[in-house]
Inverse folding.
Protein backbone atom coordinates (compact mmCIF):
# COMPACT_ATOMS: atom_id res chain seq x y z
CA UNK A 1 0.00 0.00 0.00
CA UNK A 2 0.90 3.64 -0.22
CA UNK A 3 1.91 5.42 2.94
CA UNK A 4 3.04 8.86 4.06
CA UNK A 5 4.37 9.26 7.61
CA UNK A 6 4.96 12.48 9.49
CA UNK A 7 4.95 13.30 13.21
CA UNK A 8 1.56 14.15 14.65
CA UNK A 9 2.68 17.17 16.66
CA UNK A 10 5.81 19.21 17.32
CA UNK A 11 6.55 22.12 19.62
CA UNK A 12 9.18 24.81 19.06
CA UNK A 13 10.15 28.21 20.43
CA UNK A 14 9.69 31.54 18.69
CA UNK A 15 12.87 32.53 16.87
CA UNK A 16 14.21 28.98 16.75
CA UNK A 17 14.53 26.44 13.90
CA UNK A 18 12.35 23.35 13.46
CA UNK A 19 12.58 20.42 11.04
CA UNK A 20 9.45 18.48 10.10
CA UNK A 21 10.17 15.07 8.59
CA UNK A 22 8.15 13.10 6.06
CA UNK A 23 8.80 9.55 4.88
CA UNK A 24 6.91 7.93 2.07
CA UNK A 25 6.26 4.65 0.28
CA UNK A 26 4.29 5.13 -2.91
CA UNK A 27 3.65 3.54 -6.28
CA UNK A 28 5.95 5.71 -8.32
CA UNK A 29 7.04 9.25 -7.62
CA UNK A 30 6.28 12.46 -9.47
CA UNK A 31 7.14 14.99 -6.84
CA UNK A 32 6.62 15.86 -3.19
CA UNK A 33 4.63 18.81 -1.91
CA UNK A 34 4.49 20.69 1.38
CA UNK A 35 1.44 22.70 2.39
CA UNK A 36 0.66 24.89 5.38
CA UNK A 37 -2.82 24.77 6.86
CA UNK A 38 -4.12 27.03 9.62
CA UNK A 39 -7.04 25.70 11.64
CA UNK A 40 -10.33 25.93 9.76
CA UNK A 41 -8.66 27.18 6.60
CA UNK A 42 -7.58 25.66 3.30
CA UNK A 43 -4.01 24.42 2.76
CA UNK A 44 -1.64 26.82 1.04
CA UNK A 45 1.23 25.67 -1.16
CA UNK A 46 4.73 25.98 0.30
CA UNK A 47 7.07 23.91 -1.85
CA UNK A 48 7.48 21.26 -4.53
CA UNK A 49 10.51 18.94 -4.83
CA UNK A 50 11.00 16.48 -7.65
CA UNK A 51 14.82 16.24 -7.67
CA UNK A 52 17.10 15.40 -4.76
CA UNK A 53 18.45 18.27 -2.76
CA UNK A 54 17.49 21.37 -0.88
CA UNK A 55 15.12 24.07 -2.13
CA UNK A 56 15.24 27.33 -0.21
CA UNK A 57 12.46 29.90 -0.19
CA UNK A 58 12.90 32.61 2.40
CA UNK A 59 12.54 31.24 5.94
CA UNK A 60 11.32 27.90 4.60
CA UNK A 61 13.43 25.20 2.96
CA UNK A 62 12.47 21.73 1.74
CA UNK A 63 14.77 18.76 1.22
CA UNK A 64 14.23 15.57 -0.76
CA UNK A 65 16.05 12.23 -0.95
CA UNK A 66 14.27 9.96 -3.41
CA UNK A 67 16.51 6.96 -2.66
CA UNK A 68 15.55 7.15 1.02
CA UNK A 69 11.91 8.07 0.47
CA UNK A 70 12.45 11.04 2.76
CA UNK A 71 11.80 14.75 2.86
CA UNK A 72 11.91 17.46 5.46
CA UNK A 73 10.59 20.98 5.78
CA UNK A 74 12.88 23.37 7.63
CA UNK A 75 11.44 26.51 9.18
CA UNK A 76 13.87 29.16 10.42
CA UNK A 77 13.37 32.22 12.64
CA UNK A 78 10.04 30.87 13.79
CA UNK A 79 7.20 33.31 14.26
CA UNK A 80 3.95 32.83 16.16
CA UNK A 81 2.05 32.91 12.86
CA UNK A 82 3.89 29.73 11.83
CA UNK A 83 1.69 27.81 14.27
CA UNK A 84 -0.24 25.59 11.86
CA UNK A 85 -0.42 22.09 10.46
CA UNK A 86 2.09 21.16 7.80
CA UNK A 87 0.97 18.60 5.23
CA UNK A 88 3.27 16.40 3.18
CA UNK A 89 1.89 14.94 -0.06
CA UNK A 90 3.46 12.75 -2.76
CA UNK A 91 2.30 12.54 -6.37
CA UNK A 92 2.29 8.90 -7.44
CA UNK A 93 2.74 7.28 -10.85
CA UNK A 94 -0.90 8.04 -11.71
CA UNK A 95 -0.35 11.72 -10.89
CA UNK A 96 -2.62 11.44 -7.88
CA UNK A 97 -1.65 13.06 -4.58
CA UNK A 98 -1.21 10.83 -1.53
CA UNK A 99 -1.46 12.85 1.67
CA UNK A 100 0.10 12.50 5.08
CA UNK A 101 -2.07 13.21 8.12
CA UNK A 102 -0.19 16.44 8.80
CA UNK A 103 2.08 17.71 11.57
CA UNK A 104 0.63 20.22 14.01
CA UNK A 105 3.34 22.73 14.89
CA UNK A 106 2.94 24.66 18.13
CA UNK A 107 5.09 27.75 18.60
CA UNK A 108 5.72 28.95 22.14
CA UNK A 109 6.94 32.45 23.04
CA UNK B 1 -8.34 38.38 -8.79
CA UNK B 2 -8.29 34.74 -9.87
CA UNK B 3 -9.13 32.04 -7.42
CA UNK B 4 -11.42 29.28 -6.24
CA UNK B 5 -14.64 30.10 -4.43
CA UNK B 6 -16.36 27.56 -2.24
CA UNK B 7 -19.75 28.09 -0.68
CA UNK B 8 -21.22 27.95 1.81
CA UNK B 9 -18.56 28.18 4.53
CA UNK B 10 -20.75 26.18 6.93
CA UNK B 11 -23.53 23.76 6.03
CA UNK B 12 -25.86 21.63 8.09
CA UNK B 13 -27.57 18.52 6.80
CA UNK B 14 -30.65 16.83 8.16
CA UNK B 15 -30.92 13.06 8.09
CA UNK B 16 -32.07 11.81 4.69
CA UNK B 17 -31.28 15.10 2.97
CA UNK B 18 -29.04 15.70 -0.02
CA UNK B 19 -26.89 18.83 0.09
CA UNK B 20 -24.76 20.45 -2.60
CA UNK B 21 -21.45 22.20 -2.07
CA UNK B 22 -20.47 24.80 -4.64
CA UNK B 23 -17.01 25.21 -6.17
CA UNK B 24 -16.27 27.86 -8.80
CA UNK B 25 -12.88 28.81 -10.28
CA UNK B 26 -11.79 31.56 -12.67
CA UNK B 27 -8.23 30.29 -13.09
CA UNK B 28 -9.01 28.58 -16.40
CA UNK B 29 -7.79 25.27 -14.96
CA UNK B 30 -8.93 22.04 -16.57
CA UNK B 31 -8.38 19.78 -13.56
CA UNK B 32 -10.55 20.11 -10.45
CA UNK B 33 -10.71 17.99 -7.31
CA UNK B 34 -12.86 17.39 -4.24
CA UNK B 35 -11.22 16.28 -0.99
CA UNK B 36 -12.57 15.36 2.40
CA UNK B 37 -10.56 16.15 5.53
CA UNK B 38 -11.25 14.50 8.88
CA UNK B 39 -9.36 15.35 12.09
CA UNK B 40 -6.08 13.47 12.37
CA UNK B 41 -6.27 12.11 8.83
CA UNK B 42 -4.79 13.07 5.50
CA UNK B 43 -6.92 14.53 2.75
CA UNK B 44 -8.88 11.88 0.91
CA UNK B 45 -9.92 12.24 -2.73
CA UNK B 46 -13.66 12.00 -3.42
CA UNK B 47 -13.91 12.86 -7.13
CA UNK B 48 -11.82 14.59 -9.73
CA UNK B 49 -12.35 15.96 -13.21
CA UNK B 50 -9.70 16.51 -15.86
CA UNK B 51 -12.01 18.05 -18.45
CA UNK B 52 -15.55 19.30 -18.93
CA UNK B 53 -18.24 16.58 -18.98
CA UNK B 54 -15.86 14.00 -17.57
CA UNK B 55 -15.07 13.00 -13.99
CA UNK B 56 -13.57 10.06 -12.13
CA UNK B 57 -14.16 8.49 -8.74
CA UNK B 58 -11.51 8.94 -6.10
CA UNK B 59 -10.83 6.76 -3.09
CA UNK B 60 -14.06 7.53 -1.20
CA UNK B 61 -16.71 8.32 -3.83
CA UNK B 62 -19.53 6.29 -2.28
CA UNK B 63 -22.37 8.54 -1.11
CA UNK B 64 -21.21 11.48 -3.23
CA UNK B 65 -21.95 12.72 -6.75
CA UNK B 66 -20.51 15.47 -8.95
CA UNK B 67 -21.07 17.17 -12.29
CA UNK B 68 -18.80 19.14 -14.59
CA UNK B 69 -21.03 20.93 -17.09
CA UNK B 70 -18.80 23.99 -17.21
CA UNK B 71 -15.05 24.39 -16.90
CA UNK B 72 -15.51 26.88 -14.07
CA UNK B 73 -17.84 24.82 -11.90
CA UNK B 74 -17.51 21.47 -10.10
CA UNK B 75 -20.32 21.07 -7.53
CA UNK B 76 -20.34 18.19 -5.06
CA UNK B 77 -23.56 16.62 -3.79
CA UNK B 78 -23.46 14.77 -0.50
CA UNK B 79 -26.32 12.31 -0.74
CA UNK B 80 -28.33 10.65 2.00
CA UNK B 81 -26.34 7.48 1.27
CA UNK B 82 -23.29 9.07 2.89
CA UNK B 83 -23.83 8.02 6.50
CA UNK B 84 -20.96 9.96 8.03
CA UNK B 85 -20.82 13.26 6.16
CA UNK B 86 -19.45 15.47 8.94
CA UNK B 87 -16.08 16.72 7.65
CA UNK B 88 -14.25 19.64 6.12
CA UNK B 89 -14.62 19.58 2.33
CA UNK B 90 -12.00 21.14 0.09
CA UNK B 91 -12.20 21.90 -3.61
CA UNK B 92 -8.98 22.35 -5.53
CA UNK B 93 -7.79 22.88 -9.07
CA UNK B 94 -4.72 21.91 -11.07
CA UNK B 95 -2.00 19.42 -10.15
CA UNK B 96 -0.13 21.67 -7.74
CA UNK B 97 -3.44 22.45 -6.17
CA UNK B 98 -4.95 25.80 -5.52
CA UNK B 99 -7.55 25.28 -2.81
CA UNK B 100 -10.85 26.94 -2.09
CA UNK B 101 -11.55 28.10 1.45
CA UNK B 102 -13.44 24.94 2.35
CA UNK B 103 -16.92 24.00 3.57
CA UNK B 104 -17.52 22.55 7.03
CA UNK B 105 -20.46 20.16 6.79
CA UNK B 106 -22.20 18.99 9.94
CA UNK B 107 -25.20 16.78 10.59
CA UNK B 108 -28.15 18.08 12.59
Amino acid sequence: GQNIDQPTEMTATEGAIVQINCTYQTSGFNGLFWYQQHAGEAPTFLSYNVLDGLEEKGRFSSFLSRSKGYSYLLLKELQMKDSASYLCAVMDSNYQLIWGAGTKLIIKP
Amino acid sequence: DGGITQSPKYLFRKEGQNVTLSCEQNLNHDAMYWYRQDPGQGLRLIYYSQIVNDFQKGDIAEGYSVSREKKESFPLTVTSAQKNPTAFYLCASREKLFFGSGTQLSVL
Remarks:
- Chain A has a mean pLDDT of 95.
- DSSP finds no helices and eleven strands in chain A.
